[in-house]
Amino acid sequence: MGEAFSPEEIIELAKRYNCEGIAFTYNEPLVWLEFARDIGELAHREGLFNVVVTNGYGTAEAVDLISTFADCVTVGLKANASQSFLKEHSGIPNTEPLFTSLQRLKRHDIHLEISDLVIPQGGDSLEEAGSLCRWIKSELGPDTPIHFIVFIPSHKMSTAQWTSQSVLEAHCEIAMKSGLRYVYVANFPGHERENTYCPNCNGMVIARFGYDIGSWNLDSENRCKACGYMIPIVGDLTLTPPEERYVPVVFPPMDLGIVCEGLTAFQQNKSDDASTG
Fold first, then answer.
1. Order of strands across the sheet with 212-216?
2. In this structure, which topology does domain 1-187 adopt according to CATH?
3. Does residue 268 carry a pLDDT above 80?
4. How much is the pLDDT for 156?
């Protein structure tokens, strides 16, 4: 059972825990959009930012309403937005509304990111991944981040396979060859594509392990410290909260060698940063 909170109570909780923003996610925000709007407007008055995570399958009016309070929107696609796969497994008759929503969000000049749940056995087509990435570059721009997410079998697809490392890396390669500059792997702590790399010099500008940040190699204007290239990141590194609130959990069949190497490199980055002040 959940608990009932008013918008005012949610803002008070956010401030009590020293949060810098509020994320509307997990349960689809388009279903309770007016409530999210009420919270988001109060959040802005209190200096908090708003992040909306949505499947993007909404009307133009819904997208426009999101734009009135969202500072960042992540649209979660599945199976490379394959119409045949989504029609069979999600009952979506047409994926066109997803792309229309993305175009509309882009026109509102909101920071926009794409996540793509790569689902084996029909939802991991490299051809469709290429089509999706080329569309993103053409319609949303090469700086639009895309996150390829490991699929974890559950519920009605509990017998499906995990997304393999090789399939994820093939998706990343296609995205980069398509001209996208910020390509990530998610749900795979320790993978090199958790990090952000400078498109100009290929130096690591942000090191990550799961939800934690190991190093921040950007200056006060979010330029790469090595070459001065402007990285289109909104905001700067936050020092709060100090406690470990998120701990990445490693499940098979991830490559434990990669995870251990990533954790070692991550810890070394943090140690180097601490020693240099």
1. 196-197, 204-209, 212-216
2. TIM Barrel (3.20.20)
3. no
4. 80
CA separation for the pair 125, 119 (Å, rounded): 9
* Statement: residue 174 has pLDDT above 70: yes
pLDDT band of residue 236 (cuts 50, 70, 90) is confident
At residue 117's C-alpha, the angle toward residues 49 and 106, to 5°, is 45
Closest CA to 30 of 4, 5, 55, 3: 55
Domain spans, the chain: 1-187, 190-277
Residue 45 tokens read as: 């008055």
Please give the mean pLDDT across all residues of the chain.
Answer: 88
Residue 202 pLDDT more than 70? yes
0.90 exceeded by pTM: no
Greater model confidence, 189 or 74? 74
Rounded Cα–Cα distance for residues 31 and 261 (Å): 41
Radius of gyration of the chain (CA): 19
Separation of alpha carbons 100 and 102, rounded Å: 5
